[in-house]
């Protein structure tokens, strides 16, 4: 039996701006979120691939963009909902990892906070 062929696609450093945050003051301005999305999927082709043989990363971006246009209080919920959207896109998708970065307004220096979810 031939081993499965698995491809990985990464969308790194996707930038979104919106009202994200638990505290009322966070809804007063648009916050920047950065997101990395990595997914793996099976391919069945032995020859050069066509778009139908792969997972279209433009569609992945569009799904993530649609989710990030919603208001969210917690980064964790963004990750959960984004994973669900991607998981439902294509039955060949074997795994997906979402990592979201936000620079919160804290009382000291901090590069960012990150939340990561994987299925």
Structural account:
This protein is α+β, with helices and mostly antiparallel strands. 21% of the residues lie in helices and 36% in strands. The chain has 2 helices and 4 strands; from the N terminus they run ββααββ. A 4-stranded antiparallel β-sheet has the order 1-2-3-4, with helices on one face. The longest helix has 13 residues, at 75-87.
Which tags fit this structure?
2 helices; four-stranded antiparallel beta sheet; 119 residues
Pattern of helices and strands: EEHHEE
As a whole number of angstroms, the C-alpha radius of gyration is 17 Å
Q: Can you summarize the main beta sheet?
A: 4 strands, antiparallel
Structural class: alpha+beta
The order of strands across the largest sheet is 1-2-3-4
Number of helices: 2
Ends apart, CA distance between termini: 26 Å
What helical percentage do the residues reach? 10-25%
Number of DSSP E strands? 4
Measured by DSSP, the beta-strand proportion falls in: 35-45%
Low-confidence runs: none
Shape: elongated
Task: Tell me, rounded to a whole number, the average pLDDT.
Answer: 89
Record the SSE blueprint.
Elements: E1 5-18, E2 31-43, H1 57-68, H2 75-87, E3 93-102, E4 113-118
Antiparallel strand pairs: 1-2, 2-3, 3-4
Helix pairs in contact: 1-2
Overview in brief:
With 119 residues, the protein is an alpha+beta fold. The chain has helices at 57-68, 75-87; strands at residues 5-18, 31-43, 93-102, 113-118.
């Amino acid at each position: 039996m031939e081993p499965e062929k698995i491809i990985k696609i990464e969308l790194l450093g996707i930038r979104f701006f919106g009202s994200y945050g638990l505290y009322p003051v966070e809804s007063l301005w648009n916050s920047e979120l950065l997101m990395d999305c990595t997914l793996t999927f099976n391919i069945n082709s032995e020859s050069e691939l066509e778009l139908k043989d792969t997972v279209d990363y433009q569609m992945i971006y569009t799904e993530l963009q649609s989710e990030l246009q919603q208001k969210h209080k917690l980064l964790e919920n963004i990750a959960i909902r984004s994973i669900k959207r991607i998981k439902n896109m294509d039955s060949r998708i074997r795994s997906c990892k979402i990592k979201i970065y936000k620079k919160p307004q804290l009382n000291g220096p901090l590069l960012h906070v990150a939340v990561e979810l994987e299925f």
